[in-house]
């Protein structure tokens, strides 16, 4: 236990320095909270109403799901511009299969995910084995799949979907305790999740202390965890007073956990970071760089397909315009979340928070009645500011 | 005869290294002056000082040019006085035409609009002067290296060159191209152009040079006048390598054990030019506990040999066998080579060896993640333990293993690379210039690690351009030149003179 006290004593005097060194990680979280509080005030409390919170998740789920894949592609040193079109194409495919061809939903969903994977594989093939820049390949893919969705839908909107398909997006987890409102299942999940976050944080902290690594001052640790757990419980409570946990939120939450684990705790994740950081060094360390890059694109394709299904289910129709320019929101979310254009840097949690920042801004500005013209300008400036902040921080550290 | 250039007491220090120590160089107008010395002796640094790459103020000493003290703030200043340097790596834009390359940055234009007829007319005149029979519109990448070299010289002539500096101009040229180039130098000399030529090829130096300055360890050793006395290659070699062995190498009990690795009939062709053979029928072996040196000049093919052995990371149409402990092993991919028991510590640690943005810990485990993970999930506690173990064993100076590698000094970075490969558990380590750019103290530590490996019965192949290091560390030395092994020496019979004589007589 003497280690622990020594560690604390060593870190306490440089709290300012610690904050400066980790400004980016804290900054992102606080930026999200500040933006939410701002809109909460200017929208007279509309932003955090249960129904609006539910809507926020439903509206942004497909962006967040694609941001998970995009983060990995960008960490690997590439980019995928085709995700919006792929998402629209898969939505169209699902509509044609279910509505026009009467294929059962249980068959359509896996088929669509496989198609997404194949699209990713086709693009990844050219990027990886022919060394064609991913920007070009996926720009081509963006045009091709935009065209193919128009062709599939013959320029029309196709819908509506059967109810079982809509549940993918608009369904809620039933309250197993039968209380209804507040939804006790949701509350229970929230409490368990909050406890898990605090427990994992403490475990990591204990481990870092044991190795005598520079760790955050205890006060920071407490405040940060209190804010995160508090915010989580607050959101879940609000949801529970409405209709409980949306299915998409659960999908999204589970995927976020899985991908955070994959990128931070597994050898595959580690290798993707290494190849994004220095592909030559990774290759000379025996890492199959080509195969991994290829897989990042396959993964992106599957997630884009899932996003397409969720989006179509939410609108209850597939339109030729679905997914238009969505790739830009996804990419912006990843960069706001702290990923580096040159690869090797970025975190899943960052990308998710980045997506929420974009989502809350969209939502808040719409509630305020700000025109789409100004909304675009503001979003653009926020993206630029986030990246400038990154570059500035990096220069200062040198 | 007037003195065109005099460099007096030039001293240039890099952090931790004194690259030039009171060097003096005097060049007479209208002569060809050869600058010779081993790799790393300071020739290129001296020429960078002269051409303004290292501007006035970053070194001590004076440059007198044409009777005046010269102060260069950059290359433009030296070029304005007619000092043009042609680097070993040619600085041409491959996709642009000869004409465009000749006048890049110096275009025949009025108010920013190109004057193409004038450009082509002047290009033709310059090409005629250097004896290059190519159309001015030919893209440079269609020319061979020899012709590209001529384009560089034509470019220098277009700038009214008075002092032409050529860094290893014939290193990449065939015999006939080299002859043509040397003839051109003699022609230019007749027209009054003074040149400084840096070369390892002593026969060429003897053929064209009027004066020879030998540099060793950043200091001028001798200036020989070839016009008044006959100078033998032996004499030059002696001056080049004749340092007393003041550097120390840790003692090691030399004992070669059982046969560990055998390479037989190894042939490699250039990755892009399928007809160019880079490695020519090489055979060699390493015994357990043996440190085997590979000597050679830059461009001899040593790195290419190592990279092709290690997972065919270089070249194409590779043939030959690699045996470890008598068994033929698979080295067709890097992963297979590592599994078979090979490790390769690259020459360029920043470009090829490390993920600079990542921490020490992550770099150390990168080549062997399976030993710190179970079912693909990394055990970070175990990983930290491993990293800590190597930090202590290798004496990596860092506050913690969570430090980013980019913040470490060169010596500590090299220890991280070595740690990575030791953790991969190899039988044979190929070390490519393991002490390049490292200060003396860290060098000694690296030598200690090499000796430790040998004591454990590992085989070490050490590629180095520093001959004292090779002589001090190796049990046996292979001498490599132009893609083939041209000699093998036991430590007891090896000397710098003998190694050099293998190379210069090849």
Could you characterize what this model shows?
The complex is a heterodimer of chains A (398) and B (506). With 398 residues, chain A is mostly helical. Chain A folds into 2 domains: 100 residues, no CATH class; 257 residues, ABC transporter involved in vitamin B12 uptake, BtuC (Orthogonal Bundle), CATH 1.10.3470. Chain A contains 17 helices and no strands. The longest helix of chain A has 27 residues. Chain A starts with a helix and ends with a helix. Chain B is globular and about 70 Å long. Chain B contains 17 helices and 24 strands. The longest helix of chain B is centred in the middle third of the chain and has 16 residues. Chain B has 506 residues and is an alpha/beta fold. Chains A and B meet through helix 12 and helix 13 of A and helix 10, helix 11, strand 20 and helix 13 of B. Chain A: Keywords: Cell inner membrane, Cell membrane, Membrane, Sugar transport, Transmembrane, Transmembrane helix, Transport. Chain A: It comes from Pseudosulfitobacter pseudonitzschiae. Chain A: This is Xylose transport system permease protein XylH.
